[in-house]
């Protein structure tokens, strides 16, 4: 399967953008910058748009999802939009009983603990184009409004989705999922295979509908030992990454606390590795052999520090980022809801002026 002729990477709208250039391993003239969770509670216009609408309903309303996606692009002049959705959206679309509780995160009606439970997920049927229609419509609408600014599509990696599904909600150390991996390897492998299919379909749909790049969030992979990651999770993530890269878009692979997994996450089949704030970029680049484009890694905590402190931190990151072939400035994790949005705007201007 190839991209349609009117895709922004094919018709040339985004192929020479700073983001796509950097993701492809070449240092562009302008320093690209965007923020994970740039659309969200830090923006008053987001809070107004979301008033009275449940999180997952807003994701599945193409007009609203598109409007929320565009808000940070208008306000901050970031170099990319990231589609407003959530990692559990594909689960909801196949009929899993999942909701997002404000201030908590994804919560499930029934946790997945056995091979029979995984079979019940499979019995829900595939995530086909009909079920994905609201996502494709939201992306298409957004891309039409973005012009030469690329849209990033995203999905949750199989382990991070499993960390929620097995626990039935958010957890601290993802013990239930890590236990299942060892207690019932057959159930675990079946769950990884299923989440890879659903997540892959969700990500490919965003790319076919017009996303110029993709990011796989394995946010909680940092809870895993390297051996467990490589043996129990990376094969399923590789399947998702390969399916998207086959469409011809660059793919970013990101996790939190994954300093020990950077090489394994690159080797799973990513073009770009996202680095959280714990490992300096020059150190991350050295671990990766100096040949992998990087994304990151402003500490979100410093968004609340006095400007000179934040500015020095950002300058240091940009300097260290020069040890990689190319670098997209971002945070080491998502924008905290209490962030002053003017700080983000100022940070974008700083990156562009340096
Ligand atoms: O980055 C962006 O601007 C795109 C939007 C985006 C959301 N979720 C919207 C959202 C992205 C990329 C995600 C991915 C996501 N969702 C991840 C991976 C990234 C990461 O942060 O590690 C994870 C682990 C989730 C699961 C999830 N969904 C959590 C932990 C929460 C927060 C719960 C809370 O209220 O604090 C959500 C809800 C969610 N997803 C919100 C947003 C804007 C907050 C909803 C609200 O406004 O109340």
From TrEMBL:
It is found in: Cytoplasm. Substrate binds at residues 37-41, 86, 164, 219, 333. One of its GO terms (cellular component) is cytosol. It is an enzyme of class 4 (lyase). GO terms for biological process: protoporphyrinogen IX biosynthetic process. Its EC number is 4.1.1.37. InterPro entries: UROD/MetE-like_sf, Uroporphyrinogen_deCO2ase_HemE, Uroporphyrinogen_deCOase. It holds the Pfam family URO-D. It comes from the Bacteria. Pathway: Porphyrin-containing compound metabolism; protoporphyrin-IX biosynthesis; coproporphyrinogen-III from 5-aminolevulinate: step 4/4. The record marks 86 as: Transition state stabilizer. Keywords: Cytoplasm, Decarboxylase, Lyase, Porphyrin biosynthesis. GO terms for molecular function: uroporphyrinogen decarboxylase activity. Residues 32-41, 152-168 form the Uroporphyrinogen decarboxylase (URO-D) domain. It catalyses: uroporphyrinogen III + 4 H(+) = coproporphyrinogen III + 4 CO2. Catalyzes the decarboxylation of four acetate groups of uroporphyrinogen-III to yield coproporphyrinogen-III. Homodimer. Belongs to the uroporphyrinogen decarboxylase family. This is Uroporphyrinogen decarboxylase. It comes from Cellulomonas oligotrophica.
């Amino acid at each position: 399967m190839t991209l349609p002729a009117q895709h922004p990477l094919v018709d040339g709208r985004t192929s020479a953008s700073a983001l796509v250039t950097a993701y492809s391993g070449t240092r562009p003239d302008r320093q690209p910058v965007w923020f994970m969770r740039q659309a969200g509670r830090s923006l008053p216009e987001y809070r107004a748009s979301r008033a009275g609408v449940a999180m997952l309903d807003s994701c599945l309303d193409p007009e609203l999802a598109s409007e929320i996606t565009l808000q940070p692009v208008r306000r901050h002049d970031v170099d990319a939009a990231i589609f407003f959705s959530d990692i559990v959206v594909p689960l909801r679309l196949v009929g899993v009983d999942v909701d997002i509780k404000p201030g908590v995160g994804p919560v499930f009606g029934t946790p997945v603990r056995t091979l029979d439970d995984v079979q019940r997920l499979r019995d829900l049927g595939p995530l086909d184009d009909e079920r994905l229609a609201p996502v494709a419509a939201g992306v298409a609408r957004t891309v039409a409004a973005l012009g030469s600014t690329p849209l990033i599509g995203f999905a949750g990696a199989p382990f991070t989705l499993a960390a929620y599904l097995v626990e039935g909600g958010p957890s601290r150390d993802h013990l239930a999922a890590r236990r299942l991996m060892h207690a019932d390897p057959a159930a675990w492998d079946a769950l990884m295979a299923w989440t890879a299919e659903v997540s892959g379909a969700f990500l490919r749909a965003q790319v076919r509908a017009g996303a110029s790049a993709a990011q796989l969030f394995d946010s909680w992979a940092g809870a895993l030992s390297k051996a467990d990651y490589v043996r129990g999770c990376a094969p399923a993530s590789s399947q998702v990454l390969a399916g998207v890269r086959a469409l011809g878009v660059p793919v970013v692979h990101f996790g939190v606390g994954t300093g020990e997994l950077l090489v394994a996450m690159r080797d799973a089949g990513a073009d770009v590795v996202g680095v959280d704030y714990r490992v300096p970029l020059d150190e991350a680049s050295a671990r990766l052999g100096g040949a992998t484009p990087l994304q990151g890694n402003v500490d979100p905590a410093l968004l609340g520090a006095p400007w000179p402190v934040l500015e020095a931190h950002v300058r240091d990151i940009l300097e260290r980022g020069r040890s990689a072939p190319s670098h997209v400035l971002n945070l080491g994790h998502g924008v905290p809801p209490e962030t002053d949005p003017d700080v983000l705007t100022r940070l974008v201007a700083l990156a562009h002026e340096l």
